[in-house]
Design brief:
With 113 residues, this protein is an alpha+beta fold. It has 3 helices and 4 strands, in the order αββββαα.
């Protein structure tokens, strides 16, 4: 799935600064990463187990509108599910643009030293 998302983002001409896919189910845990876009995705942690269900979390930091990211994620998930004859039972998606960083005051101005 990481490879397919990577290809979708390249086709849309957007850069993925970070893309992580985490699969979990009853003690099984696997992680695939893509950092940065120019490199091939890697399986950083294999579960070494076969499972019948999975909770899948996709964490993507992509230089694009959140709606575009959600569209590619949903399409990629559905295409993969269809190809592997899997059923997506429940899908909860949160796509958002993070706020601007907040500059904190120097520690010496808030604490008596």
């Amino acid at each position: 799935m990481v490879s397919r998302l990577h290809e979708a983002f390249i086709a849309a001409n957007v850069e993925a600064a970070h893309l992580k896919l985490i699969g979990q189910w009853e003690g099984a845990f696997a992680v695939a990463n893509l950092i940065p876009s120019q490199e091939a995705p890697e399986l950083s942690l294999a579960s070494n187990r076969r499972v019948t269900s999975v909770h899948l979390t996709i964490n993507a930091r992509v230089g694009a509108d959140p709606a575009l990211i959600e569209k590619h994620g949903a399409e990629t998930l559905q295409d993969l599910a269809t190809a592997l004859r899997l059923q997506v039972l429940d899908r909860h998606t949160q796509c958002f643009r993070p706020g601007q960083p907040i500059r904190m005051p120097a520690l010496s101005t808030v604490i008596d030293v």
